[in-house]
Amino acid sequence: MKVSATSASPVTCSAEAIVVAVRSNKQLTPAAQEVDVALGGVIQGLLESGEFSAAHATTVVLYPTAGVAAKCVLVVGIEDGSPEQAARISREAAGAATKRLASKQRNQVAFFVPFPAPASGVCGAMVGCTGQDLYRAEKKLFPITELLFAGLTDQQLVEGQTLGEAVNWTRELVNAPPSDLYPRSFVELVQATLAGLPIQSEVWDAPRLEAEKCHAILAVGRGSVREPQLLMLHYRGAAPTAPVLALVGKGVTFDSGGLSLKPSEGMLDMKCDMAGAATVVGAIQAIARLQLPVNVSAYCGLAENMVSGDSYKLGDVIRTRAGVTVEVHNTDAEGRLVLADTLDVACGQGVHHLIDLATLTGACMVALGRQVSGVFTNQQAWCDRVLQSATSAGDWAWQMPMHSLYNELISSPVADIKNVGDGRWGGAITAAKFLERFVGDTPWVHVDIAGPSFSDRSSNWLDGGASGCFVPTLIELARRYGGL
What is residue 483's predicted lDDT score, i.e. its pLDDT? Predict the structure, then answer.
């Protein structure tokens, strides 16, 4: 998908379709006013008649026979919000426009919209016209060949395109079926995609994981014919003595639940259980392409949680790489086991700050719904920086409690801890308390993206399936981290 600037006016622009905006208070933006005059007041008429409400991310399409050069005019409603909402508003409005226009193949669409966050507007336009229909012969959404933007600088275009490509790559990884994307193929695809970028990669296969005493990752992957992997990616954009930001992702490429078998309806979307790993590789790709002055390492613990005669069992006790013993009470609580060893590897390499992302618990969705990620921490100052980056990037997040009393809920009579808490209660928190045991004193934030990372419902601005959430946050976090 090509992204370019245009210096044409909305009336003279010869793109197949142009996009103009009306604010949610029904005030036409300057470009919309110009088009409205050229079309004899049709946009104002739609507003006055109530045919178009101008609510945020709603659209109406006009096919004028005269007055403007474009054959199609799309009018999108754009919300008036605070500066903290600028990225979200821009991404959603742009995505709604291109998603509506992507119902047929279009070569050029030009935006004449005053996005409050221009790069996010470019990203949203790229994401909105890209669907999950990777394997459909008859597509539902057709990515637009070239997107034109008026009034944006070259830097804004480059940043927006880089962000959009990172989000779409993450979405593509998460949407891929587990027969195509499994631990080894994930590694190979990521290495091929990142080739040519200043990113060094290292892979630990099953024998190396055994030598490194990563028994938790190995236990989860033991029931599959496809061996687990640990992928490490290192970008060094700052001085060797500068601090290192670690991005850690859960990469369970398919989760059957193991012997604690999921029902069919709960298993169907479990290709998405590697969304954390996809998020961190999408982010580090963009960080390297933008040449941010920061040192970043990404760690992806990759495994399939399958059922066989060699599957790990309820009642097993696993000695993790950190030496902490874990009693298995549920083989469907596997993501925290994969992350336990992965976090320990990251800490052992001397990183200075950690953030892990995982589709970890349905309990987080019960607490916060489908659109908001839960955030947990062992250091408030670091958590505040992550939350500020999420707000600036337009990702919804909410901090959850980590009181010491929750530690009791993961205690085990036969091992140091167990891999589940007290039944249904506080499940997202007890999962985070489990992970906390493996980060030591390193400032750490855990983000449970189980809700917003994947949806079976489409919105006005995004097709169903993978969302690519928190890729923008990680890029913004790295940008701010490098500026310290």
Answer: 63
Which CATH number covers residue 237? 3.40.630.10
The confidence score (pLDDT) of residue 149 equals 98
Q: Which residues of the chain have pLDDT under 50?
A: none
417: which strand partners? 326, 411
Predicted model pTM: 0.97
pLDDT of residue 83: 87
Q: Where are the beta strands (DSSP E) in 289-358?
A: 295-305, 317-319, 325-327, 353-358
Catalytic residue among 99, 106, 336, 433: 336
* Domain boundary pick from 81, 116, 150: 150
Number of Cα atoms under 13 Å in the Cβ half of residue 75: 31
| 262 included as an active-site residue | yes
Q: Is there a domain that residue 399 lies in?
A: yes
Q: Which of 26, 213, 262, 313 is catalytic?
A: 262
Domain-embedded: residue 164: no
Q: What is the pLDDT of residue 422?
A: 86
Active site residue 336: yes
∠ CA 83-89-93, nearest 5°, is: 150
